[in-house]
Amino acid sequence: MDRRSFVSDSLGSAAALAFRPADAVGSAHVVELREGLRSLYTLDDAYGGDAVRSLAVRHLRRISRVINTGTFSDAIGRQLQLLVGETAEHCAWLHYDADEQDTARRYWGQALATATMLQDDGLEILVLASLGMQAIHENRPREGYDLARAAHQRAVPLGSPTLLSLIAAREARALAGMRDHIGARKRLADAMRLAGHPGRGRPAPAWAAFHGQAELEFAQGLVNTEAGHHKAAVPFLRAALARQNKVYGRNRALYRLTLARGLARAGEVDEAAAEAVGSLEHLAEVESGRVMRRLTEVRDLLARADTRTARESVEALEVHIR
After folding, report:
1. Span 114-157, pLDDT tens digits
2. Greater pLDDT, 18 or 179
3. Which CATH class is domain 120-211?
4. What is the separation of C-alpha 173 from the centre of its chain, rounded to a whole number of angstroms?
């Protein structure tokens, strides 16, 4: 089944979750609504934020409608409010991936307000870490670092090595953007050390399931890239792509294009062109503003190279740039 059919079918399935007024909202309603959110995570991993964000917004409205029209206990009410916060956070992530940053900020603000109201540490950590990631993406590394540190401080008592590793990797990215390359390498080493003990401490939250060796290799490549060490970055970016689980279709597309960018910057134009053209197989399924931005970066780098292979690859990439 192709992407459009799958998303369309999933949209229809999620629509079936619409709340039907009853005497009371119970645990079964919450489970059903949470399953809808889980399905959105799966769709995003495979296809990217562009294809899924409108479905997520509809799901958020659906949960809010349940809260505003239903009758429920305080315990169920808290679960529904937490689900609102988690779904708003995912709406933010999807708009971030679609490269609609102002809308992403608005949804993250809603999620953070919910986390504060509920005094839920897990949701607050997720939002702070996500806002830090966005700040790095928007070339605001100092702000990204401060947000990641705030997430780290709240995460320490939870005792999850994987979660602390993920946050440390984002701190490293921010430090690299601040040109503190020694600090970035140190923090990335901390992230790798923490990830080496997945069985210790508490398990990671479900949203952090993507974090692992592939993500750390990718972060190492990006830290080297920020330092201008493009040749050194290439082996890490190549390893990240090789290790990336195939269920993460959007990440595989992004990783491969980032490898192509690293190769082009390292002067390996023919190999960069081959990886860039090879990445097009992913774009039949993936719709992601971040991926398209990276594709445009690679196209522009290859356009500066005066080789037949580069020119042919630019022609192939142009077809997919919108």
Report:
1. 999 999 999 999 999 999 999 999 999 999 999 999 999 999 99
2. 179
3. mainly alpha
4. 14
Mean pLDDT of 196-209: 78
**pTM for the model:** 0.90
Quick one: CA dihedral 114, 116, 118, 124, positive or negative?
positive
Helix axes 74-97 and 121-137, enclosed angle (nearest 10) = 10
Residue 296 corresponds to which tokens in the numbers above? 């445009």
Task: pLDDT band for 15, please (50, 70, 90 cuts).
Answer: very low
Burial 69-90 (b: 16+ CB within 10 A, else e): ebebeeebeebbbbbbbbbbbb
Q: For tokens 């490898």, what's the residue?
A: 259
CA 183 – CA 223 distance, rounded (Å): 11
Helix axes 101-118, 121-137, angle to 10 degrees: 160
Given the candidates 1.25.40, 2.60.120, 3.40.50, 2.60.40, the CATH classification of the domain at 217-322 is: 1.25.40
Better pLDDT: 263 or 247: 263
CA distances from 46 to 115, 123, 285 (A): 28, 23, 8
DSSP string, 165-227: HHHHHHHHHHHHHTT-HHHHHHHHHHHHHHHT-TTSSSPPPGGGTT-SHHHHHHHHHHHHHHT
The helix/strand count (H/E) of the chain reads as 15, 0
Reference 167, options 137, 203, 191, 195; nearest CA is 191
Residue 11's pLDDT is what? 47
The residue ranges of every structural domain in the chain are: 1-115, 120-211, 217-322
Which residues have C-beta within 8 Å of that of residue 240, sequence separation ≥ 6?
A: 214, 215, 217, 218, 221, 255, 259
Judge if 120-211 and 217-322 fold alike in CATH terms: yes
